[in-house]
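HUMAN: Can I see a protein plus its fold?

ASSISTANT:
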Amino acid sequence: MKRKLMAKLMEWRLDKRRKPLILEGARQVGKTYLLKEFGRKYYDNVIYINLENPSPELSTLFDGAISPERIITSLELLYHEEISKKRTLIFFDEIQELPRALTSLKYFCEEAPEYHIVASGSLLGLFLHSGTSFPVGKVDLMRLEPMNFEEFLWASGEKRITEHLKSNLEDGLFDEVLLDNFRHYLAVGGMPEAVKLWVDEHNITKVEQVHNFILQNYLSDFSKHTDATTSMRIRQVWDSLVSQFAKNNDKFVYGAIRSGARARDFEIAIQWLVDSGIVRKVMKVSAGNSIPLKAYQNPSAFKLYFIDIGLLRTLAQIPTPVIMQKDALFNEFNGLLAEQYVLQQLAPRTLYFWTSDAKSEVDFVTQISSDITPIEVKSGENVRAKSLQVYRKKYNPRLAVRFSLKKLEYNSGLLNVPLYKSWLFDRLVDSHRVS
């Protein structure tokens, strides 16, 4: 299960200015596996400390004054291993469960930076906003997302095709192979356990069992980490997500949560879901040609997308046979599942959406260097995009991108990217940007 982030972990290992590393991301995206694999490949030994249900010895390890020297000595005694400053990886898993362990990373950065220390956390985004003593500026941060389509192709044994296409962008020889795998990805999604099960057994029923297990874990976190009122409101927002997709709205509608729902009653619940990594928030921008885009975002107008298209498909109870039909999946939810897929492939790039006064809407806009690039997502081969035409006429961007099921093509500043080649987005954009 090769992950792209491994290359960045290797860079971190060799960086002389390295700080303790925190790998954040939602539950079940593969953080523990990736860091263990990193340690196995590039270190002599790994001290793995699981803090989700710490033993009394581990809990008391961080009591009192936090001293890296005392912690290292105690870990050597607890795990009966010598800890080398260069050859040992110390791994604190689910570090958010023991806030004092999180605080200790600050002292390792200041007093013992020679040690190689990594940590993972599933709900660290919550701590960044909760007032907890987070070691801001004293740690390196990376984020792990669900497997994107390229990583899915690697797991499915198609790495040679992906490498070939990176150097031969125009080659359409493998389009049918990619399209078949693309439909599988829509059903399975990118959660590593589900992908591994699919690759090993090709059993979609078991894949959906994994999806439901993950979804149930998310539900359990609502009550475990919040008070009763907040938990109830988070659940109400959660229950409305599928209906939000079913409506052709230009922004999140509070009325889909319950009749008469007000923004102020659900702001905390929505932010909790965003901070936990379970949903993605895309803001509306009022100007499509002004940099930085963030300065023109409208906090009250946004859309919510899910963490993973496979989980969303199972949550929405869309049958697998529907996915395998040519355009049937994207006919559901007014094509918004296609947007979900594209958003997931472009993560962690920051995306916004744009609407005009005349109700024209461009699905996404993003800043690439000093350019603003509009992105339209079409669910099939019908690619008429009136809103994108409105945007291009108004702002005249150097490049506009359209995702669809049509073949790769470029025409007068408009680049059509097949949905199954979304993982080539950066290369394709770089090769077609005009002066």
Observations:
- The first helix runs from residue 5 to 14.
- The mean pLDDT is 90.
- The first strand starts at residue 21 and ends at 24.
